[in-house]
Fold this protein.
Amino acid sequence: MTTPEAAAHRVPAGERDFRSLMSRFPTGVVVIGALDGAGRPWGMTCSSLCGVSLDPPTLLVCLRSASPTLRALTGTGTFSVNFLHHGARYVAELFSSGDPDRFLRTEWHLPELAGGPHLRDAAHAVGDCRVESTQQVGDHTIVLGRVLRTRFPATAGDAPLLYGLRRYAAWPSEGSVVPTD
Ligand SMILES: Cc1cc2nc3c(=O)[nH]c(=O)nc-3n(C[C@H](O)[C@H](O)[C@H](O)COP(=O)(O)O)c2cc1C
């Protein structure tokens, strides 16, 4: 006979449960950038970054399949990964807000051979990537990117911005992690 506890374990997790589960896994925060065919910049806040392989250097990100940023990067085949420092929380919020003017409200540039827009003040490291492959899973698409170049701009802050338990935090200089609000 099935106990109520055993039955509860078989109930498939819904979106809310899944978000709750993943919120227990803190990460850094990046902005994925890409240019479309007309040279217009696109970008979105992302925490689903994962290093995959050292040789060749490869990472993956999972992006909403309907995202215009995904459309741009699959169109041109390149993208940038802007690693946000702890002072760039406003940029993380801007690039997750759906604001169509996000690139008018933050400093960016396109250095030679950039894979996508580089955020001038917000990023303390940037990787330029070539799209190796994509795979759609549910409502998101996994993008595997070969890292072709890395840059470590001198910025005001070099400690990474963190996100977990549905809030931002700063990398601690010592002791515990400090919430940014
Ligand atoms: C901290 C944080 C991390 C996020 N990580 C992801 C992610 O990994 N993949 C994703 O598709 N959306 C992620 N989002 C949500 C997108 O940033 C948000 O949907 C954004 O509006 C997408 O831009 P777009 O509408 O131009 O595609 C994240 C949001 C936040 C605040």
Summary: Residues 27-156 form a domain with the Pnp Oxidase; Chain A fold (CATH 2.30.110.10). The mean pLDDT is 92. The helical segments are 4-10, 15-23, 68-76, 89-94.
